Amino acid sequence: MNSLMNLVLALVLILFGPSVWSADMAPDEMLRHTTEEILTLVKQDKDLQSGDKQKAYALVETHIVPRFDFVRMTRLALGKNWNKATPEQQTLIVDAFQNLLVRTYSSAITRFNKQTITYKPWTGKTEDATTSVQSVVSDGSRTVPIDYAMTHVESGWKIYDIKVDGISLVTNYRSDFNDRINAAGVDGLIKDLQEKAKMASQSADAKSLKKGQ
What we know:
The protein has 213 residues and is of the alpha+beta class. The protein has one domain: Tgt2/MlaC (Nuclear Transport Factor 2, Chain: A). The protein contains seven helices and five strands, in the order H-H-H-H-H-H-E-E-E-E-E-H. Helix 4 packs across helix 6 and helix 5 packs across helix 6. The longest helix has 44 residues. The radius of gyration is 17 Å and the shape is globular.
């Protein structure tokens, strides 16, 4: 995944902070309501601005998990291979994929300070089970379209896929997942995801340690 998509996805992740959301709030309203508050908090946090990877990781870990439907996201990324996994393996894959996403994109949060995001009017219906919200991220010199695929659950709307400039996060991982399962089976994919998440975490630890010396 290219650096631009990494950066934009990191911005998407930080938009889902500690704001209190109503379960019946429209998805575009929910996103718009949170954006200004969370971006302001990030821009005002000196530790994040100075590149504190552990603080960025803690922010993402604490606040984004409840806002995303990682089970649906993982199931779509696996496609037909989802049914090849046992319930226990499915749980391990979801946990490992979630860990990988959190550790990968939290490290990019510290690079945001001038970006803005604008949401297009939502055209869906409140009774829809799934919907899409379109937006545009700008840094003053370029703009990137972002589409959020969302599903409605009892607690409100949750994201299960993100398209950055037409590139789907779920689709981006699908070919890698399929290749790994074909080569090493479901357990091979689980091991691969766990190792990648561990490497991303160790990389953040090493950078933070070096910064503190």
